[in-house]
Amino acid sequence: MKKIIAVLVTTTFLSSCASIIKGKNQTINITTSNGKNIQATVFSKNGMLDTELPRVISVARDSQDITIRVKGDKCHTETVSVAQSRIEPWFWGNLLTGGILGSSTDYGTGAMWKYDNNVNVNVTEKSKCSK
Asked: How many angstroms separate the Cα of 64 from the Cα of each of 27, 97, 109?
């Protein structure tokens, strides 16, 4: 009987590992390939963010990829980079420990997903640029 109680308590504490350990949001460091500042638009579950890169942003974890569009101007060509969403390894811990409740919590909150912590976007300078 003590073993059954111990297993139930352990399973309860390990349930929703990704939600507890990693949270619903993630910060991503977005840098530029040439190291210079550039205007860009970031599209994520949070919506659309017009910003200047490089920058650290906070996004909601989601199965949807994040698209980063570098705005074209007189010196730069418009480019698009994607931060792909992948399953967070902590999510598998829930399934292995029998945490159906925990894994469904991670799924419902989006905590089962993750992005790379660092994303480098390609910035292409035009050959003839009049600054």
From this structure: 16, 27, 13
